[in-house]
Write a structure and sequence with these properties.
single chain, 236 residues, alpha+beta, Arc Repressor Mutant, subunit A, 2 domains, 4-stranded antiparallel β-sheet, 27% strand, transcription regulation, activator, transcription, Crp/Fnr family transcriptional regulator, cNMP-bd_dom_sf
Amino acid sequence: MDQKINHAIKNITIFSKKHAELLRKVMTVTDYKKGETIYWEGDAAEKLYFIVSGMVKVFKSADDGKDLVLNYFSTDDLFGELACFGPTNYTFTAEAAKDCKIGVLKQREIELLMLEKSEISIDFIKWMSYMSQYTQIKMRDLLFYGKNGALASTLIRMVHSYGKETENGIQFTTNFTNSDLAQLIGSTRETVNRMLQALKKEGAISYNQGSIVVKDLDYLKTICHCEECPLHICRL
């Protein structure tokens, strides 16, 4: 089993330690309680956010009230949108999935940093590229391979983000409900229930104390036509 599965894949920021420290010096750390909204879709895109601790989910709301979760971000992740990089308004909503400490980076402070330290601009370009690639690949999985493929892809991403190798398989260190999984693939809880039961019967997964255990990762990869994306892209 690949040893990289033994720890969560984090830090989609791609920033060097030196540049990450520069960001920490200009950010204002704010506490958010679980369930609290960090920004709403349609708000002015004037800030980026760095997670000091905790977890954040970013989602899109449909007219019928259903949510499609695009990302779960964890400690050391940078997320958000900024007007100087493109959109003038946030295209998604961000909400604290756990109690969080989040560093807020205002657009003006980022622009000054980029003027003073031009090399940090390269890190921002890399971050934007990875975020774009991540979103494109996730949309591909959702659209091309049906709900089964989308669920298989999501479970693989969970393995890389929250998987821990055990003697019985790869168990998730963070629990996600079937409703959470449904929001990640644009489906219903009932549909996810049926698909998980089918995967259990096929021996691809099992359960341990209510947590999913992946027993046959290769089988999941077959369902979603896995292209073995880099681990910093194949994450929840």
